[in-house]
Amino acid sequence: MRACLEKRNCLRLPIDCSSSCTSFDDHREHSGTVINLSSRGVLYTSRQRVEAGIPLDIVPAAANPKTPPTPARAEVVRVTCHLQLYEIACRFGESRR
Predict the structure, then answer these.
(1) What is the pLDDT of residues 55-72, one digit of tens each?
(2) Which of 40, 47, 51, 41 lies closest to 86, judged by CA?
(3) CA-based nearest residue to 42, from 87, 97, 96, 94
(4) What does each C-alpha distance from 91 to 28, 34, 55, 62, 74 come to in angstroms?
(5) What is the pLDDT at residue 94?
(6) Number of C-alpha atoms within 13 angstroms, CB side, residue 96?
(7) What is the pLDDT of residue 54?
(8) Integer Cα distance of 65 and 56 in angstroms
(9) Is 87 strand, coil or helix?
(10) Averaged pLDDT, 36-60
């Protein structure tokens, strides 16, 4: 049996890929980098701030250019700033808005 230090219900998979995001509210687009991914959400970084509670379409860039984009609908649940780079935690699924 493998020991697991993860205290969450869903394990996070470390990823390092660029992504684009579009806000549902004002249709503003910005870019970022996906840091990790789970079955319930995604953590990404961006130089542009996004407010908690905002619904987004997130499209991670595929490593293979022949792979079609796979957008995901998510809601921002937490935003923290580290050295002018925002860490944006999002939960997958329908927005509460």
Answers:
(1) 999 998 888 888 888 888
(2) 47
(3) 87
(4) 19, 13, 9, 20, 5
(5) 60
(6) 8
(7) 92
(8) 23
(9) strand
(10) 92
Is a pLDDT exceeding 60 seen at residue 95? no
- DSSP 8-state symbol, 67: S
Q: What is the 3-state secondary structure (H, E, C) of the chain?
A: CCCCCCCCCCCCEEEEEEEEEEECCCCCEEEEEEEEECCCEEEEEECCCCCCCCEEEEEECCCCCCCCCCCEEEEEEEEEEECCEEEEEEEECCCCC
CATH class entry, domain 13-92: mainly beta
pLDDT of 1 higher than 50: no
pLDDT at 7: 56
Amino acid letter for position 72: A
Q: How many residues does the chain have?
A: 97
Tokens found for residue 51: 């407010």
Domain boundaries, the chain: 13-92
Backbone torsions φ then ψ of 18, nearest 5 degrees: -75, 160
